[in-house]
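To whoever is on call:

I kicked off a structure prediction for a single chain this morning and the downstream step that reads the tokens threw a length-mismatch warning. I double-checked the sequence; it's 191 residues and nothing unusual in it as far as I can see. Pasting both halves so you can look.
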Amino acid sequence: QQGLPALFDDAAHALARPPPPQQAWLDPSEWRSCVTACLDAGDLRAALRVLAVGELLVPPHGRTMSAYRQTVFALAAANRWGELEQLYGRLWRAVAPAARPDERFVVLAANLAVDAGAMDVAVRIIREMRLVGGVPLTVYSYSVLLKGFGRAKKRDAIKRALLAMETTEVEFDRITLNSAVDAFVRCDDMQ
């Protein structure tokens, strides 16, 4: 973490300040490097602080999802779901469209949560995407939900997800169909 700008030494102070004039913006590549350095050092808390500071001090066009992606993987690997949900919540409230997650970025976290057995986290992240982010669910979200509900043996939730797909006119693709069949098989329901 050598060479981190002095601004990162006190994230709370930096977060309390108004946005800087354009000449005071941080270089986006330096910001991403700082996030990577924190993650390489195993300091998730510092990585989250650097992300938060960057949301204020990096120009909007420089706040890409690549800086967040590695942090999502690290949080999931550490089973720090509350912090992952807070991170996504902050991203939905970001002003710059470039700093907002798309459905595939949300499905990434939801799938990691399903694989870890944290289905409630997956549902909340996808729900927030739809309600706060205004992003409609497509086959990607429904596939992850079906996979998770099947693993949790929640037959009624599987049926509700399929009904929601029909209601919103989301067409099945091969992956979604396989997810639905697998979900019912896991629930011992082949009707």
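Update from on-call: the warning came from a stale cache, not from the record. Cleared it. Sanity check on the structure: The chain has a mean pLDDT of 85.
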